[in-house]
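Translate structure to sequence.
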């Protein structure tokens, strides 16, 4: 099994970079209407999800925990203005699920905005909200978020799994970039972002146990670090993780000295804002993969007879 020190080093480095670049999680109030005001919310929601995982797993050191708390406080108080920007976003695009999806991990971490919650509950009763066309994996994620928020999912999660790419278990060699992300996010939603490995149906877990090692090799050889990181998270979500040593060593070697993780091959060039927009996601994924792998590895060690 991969040395847990490697997991720790990757996680600490990623969190330090995210903290140093926390102002990159910004909103653009005067964005072109064709681009969409809500596009900048996605990074903030992803940051909240990863911080929630870090606090939930309880394996981070004191420095990681402090950095994560400062990050999430900054995002809530400054980027989202205490949730008021989510209210504005919901009023701008009334049936968009994005403000709700961003809000939920903050709420689960103890932050709240009653006005935002009233808007979410109202909008999700609309027929337009239920009729919003989405890919099956996107609908699965929204149903999972509704359940966690205490709302009845408009479509039960069990009814959605079979419509996803992964739920159909098709030919594994057809996996390419977009399909691979559908696979990883199906796993994230079914396991509540690694909290409940038992949430994977047996047939899905068996399919992944067979083909995940092949995909890890493929994306490692292609140096697709963002996707490789998500697949390492998938491994940690399985009932019996492998902690693939070759994949983890290649992933860690791609991480920059300051903790940033390139998306593909090497670090991009450009202005600080342009680099942030490309690099923030693989760096968040690196923090996610590291903390989940560390938690699962320690659990396995604790169960190993002395």
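Result:
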């Amino acid at each position: 099994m991969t040395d847990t020190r490697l997991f720790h080093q990757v996680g600490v480095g990623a969190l330090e970079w995210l903290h140093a670049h926390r102002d990159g999680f910004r909103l653009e109030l005067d964005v072109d209407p064709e681009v969409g005001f809500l596009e900048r919310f996605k990074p903030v929601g992803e940051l909240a999800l990863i911080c929630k995982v870090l606090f939930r797993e309880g394996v981070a050191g004191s420095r990681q925990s402090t950095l994560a708390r400062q990050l999430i406080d900054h995002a809530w108080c400054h980027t989202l203005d205490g949730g008021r920007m989510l209210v504005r976003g919901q009023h701008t695009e009334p049936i968009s699920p994005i403000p709700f999806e961003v809000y939920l991990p903050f709420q689960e971490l103890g932050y709240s905005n009653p006005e935002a919650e009233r808007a979410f509950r109202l909008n999700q009763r609309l027929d337009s909200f239920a009729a919003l066309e989405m890919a099956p994996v996107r609908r699965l994620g929204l149903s999972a978020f509704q359940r966690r928020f205490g709302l009845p999912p408009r479509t039960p999660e069990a009814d959605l799994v079979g419509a996803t790419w992964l739920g159909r278990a098709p030919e594994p060699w057809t996996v390419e970039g977009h399909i691979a992300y559908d696979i990883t996010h199906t796993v994230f939603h079914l396991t509540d972002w690694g909290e409940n490995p038992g949430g994977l149906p047996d047939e899905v877990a068996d399919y992944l146990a067979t083909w995940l090692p092949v995909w890890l090799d493929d994306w490692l050889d292609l140096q697709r670090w963002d996707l490789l990181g998500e697949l390492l998270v998938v491994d940690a979500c399985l009932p019996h993780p492998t902690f693939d040593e070759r994949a983890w060593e290649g992933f860690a070697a791609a991480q920059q000295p300051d903790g940033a993780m390139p998306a593909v091959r090497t670090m991009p060039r450009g202005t600080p804002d342009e680099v942030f927009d490309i690099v923030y996601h693989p760096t968040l994924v690196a923090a996610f993969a590291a903390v989940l792998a560390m938690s699962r590895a320690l659990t396995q060690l604790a169960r190993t007879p002395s």
